[in-house]
Every structure is written in C-alpha cells, then in structure tokens.
Inverse folding.
C-alpha cells in the first residue's frame, strides 16, 4: 500500500530548477593551450584540449579558464609521476561537470545529438594524439615504479 494521495493522471512536474543549465552538444572553439604554462606531457595537453572544447567551456568566465590552467599543471604533474594529485584533479573537474553524476548534481544537461560523430565537427588541427604516443607515455609512466 502506498502512502499519500493517488497521483493525478497526466501530472506535470513543476519543480524545474531556475538555475539549471542546458548546454549545446558538440565541441566549442575553446582556447589554445598557453605556451607559458610549460606543459610537458601528452596527457596534460589532451586534458586541456578535452576541457577547452567541451560544451561546458562555452559558458566559462575568465576565472574558469584560470582554474583550467591551474588544473592542467596538476594533471601535468600527475603524468610526470606525482600521483598524489589525483584526488585534487578529481575534485576540480567534478565542479565543471566531468561525469554524468556530476552534471546531474549541478543540474546541467547537454543537448543530445547522439547521431553526430565528434570527429566530423573537429578540424584537422583537432586530431587526437596517436595511439602510439599515448601507449609510449603510459609505458613510461608504468615503468618508472
């Protein structure tokens, strides 16, 4: 037996949050990685590219870009072997809506055009690092210990 009154047929949900964000699907133009940051690893460069072109980045203020610069330095340190950075990186990216759970908590949703191939929207300069580069970097990271 359920408690409370029986729900009305065709009930309309009215508790839409006034600060919910609806983001457009697909990559944004983003920004180039500032050369002055001195990022050394392919993983950190890939991290920057992923976040700089994410749907969330379309609504970022200057302070958000500054946070990305700090975070990419932490990611660079992580790929250079400082694995203590993992927790801090996770906390920072969760505030941007990194996972489905994070986006739900932030009341953030991305318009879905699931049929669109992300490689079709990216230009030639947006090519992902080759598998060989990523494999070499992973091998180097794992063989250090």
């Amino acid at each position: 037996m359920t408690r409370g009154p029986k729900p009305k047929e065709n009930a309309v949900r009215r508790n839409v949050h006034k600060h919910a964000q609806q983001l457009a699907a697909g990559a944004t133009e983003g920004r180039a990685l500032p050369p002055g940051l001195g990022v050394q690893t392919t993983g950190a460069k890939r991290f920057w590219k992923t976040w700089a072109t994410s749907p969330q980045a379309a609504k970022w203020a200057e302070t958000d870009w500054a946070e990305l610069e700090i975070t990419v330095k932490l990611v660079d340190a992580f790929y250079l072997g400082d694995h203590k950075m993992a927790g801090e990186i996770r906390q920072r990216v969760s505030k941007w809506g990194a996972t489905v759970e994070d986006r739900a908590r932030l009341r953030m949703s991305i318009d879905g055009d699931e049929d669109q191939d992300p490689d079709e929207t990216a230009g030639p300069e947006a090519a992902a690092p080759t598998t060989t580069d990523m494999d070499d970097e992973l091998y180097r990271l794992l063989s250090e210990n």
About this structure: Residues 38-111+130-143 form one domain. The longest strand covers residues 21-23. The CA atoms of residues 11 and 86 lie 44 Å apart. DSSP finds six helices and two strands in the chain.
